[in-house]
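Input chain follows. Return structure tokens only.
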Amino acid sequence: MRRLCVIAGFLAALTVTVADTLTLSAAVERSLKNYPSLRISEENVAAAAAGIQLARTAYLPRVDALAQANRATRNNVFGLMLPQSVIPSMSGPVIGTNNFGTVWGSALGVLVSWEPFDFGLRRASVEAAEAARAQTEAARKRTRFEIAAATADAFLTLAAAQQTVEAARAGVVRAEALKKITGALVTSELRPGADQSRAEAELAAARTLMIQTQQSVAVARASLAQFSGGEPAAIEIAIGGLLKAAPEATPFVADANPLVGEQKAAVETIAMQLRALERSYFPKFQVQGSAYSRGSGAELNGGRLGALNGLAPNVQNYALGLTVTFPVMDYASIRAKEAAQTAHIRAETARRDQLINDLKAQWNRATATVEGARLVALNTPVQVSSARAALDQATARYQSGLGAISEVAEAQRLLAQAEIDDSLARLSVWRALLGVAIAAGDLEPFVVEASR
């Protein structure tokens, strides 16, 4: 038993988290598969598709069936009664009696109603439902685009954080080397003890910077895991493609942006709703057919049939006719609704134009950022080379007794910052290109190039 425990502990010690190495395209693909908000959009599309089917059912005839049995008095009276929903209707002649004797009554019938033509109202309703579905589909595309953009941004943030860690780690190595050199010189009494304290302080500062950059990596990895799924500790990324020369910026085409597409779909939906509204002020024609049977335990002379007479229908009728209705006084309200709908169309059209204008301005700013980032990326290697040469000279002067430790410390900090700037310079170009792609509404070329 003890041996089994030892073996189990040994195997547990060997267990490590298997890292999942992702390219940018793989991360985006996983996000589009796993992120819950996309499933919400897909279900909205399914609901809108069902709405089309619902609108098409208006072409079908309406069939209503009824079966009823009751026991009630049969007193009847002449006179008009306005339409209402409280007093039950009664058929048959007035027999001149007024008592509370009850009889059985029954009814069984079917009514079929069908609208043979509607001046395009049903077709307009179907088109409005189709436009609503197109709008939800555009919203789904916009959601996919936003998820992909957020994933790409999280990926670049993690890549930048990892590059910063490498630069910070190199700074720690140099600080440790300086501490060793200073310790040897202080031990040999060639330098004062204060130099060793300064070297230890510089080493602590370099380690603090590395800890901070490692914290940034953990936070960035958690952000990427939020979109792509999985445990943050199990995510590793392949950034080889991001260290290459960046491609040209994505051109701006307003109609290609999913945000613009969604707004255009919103305008089209309101326009189709207006079209259906315009076709609602027409007569309604209903072809109706009915077959029914009635039963009653009451006689014309006021007598009542006993037992179960009237409980089963025994008198049949049928009818076939055409009913025309026209909402004469609805004209004013329909005109007001049309005016409001037209105003909504103008407002949504203006919102679409404003969106295009804002995206174009965003694209211009991102393009300018790309050009500046490219120039910075060309300059940072010179900055690193010069900073490294300055550190070598300061270190040599310090070891020969001609310089102070503060010069070496300052040169180390300058080199560390230069290396961080250089490691982030090319990634900054890619991040600026991501901004251009987001404004242009087309992430595919960017993702493909970054994943090579």
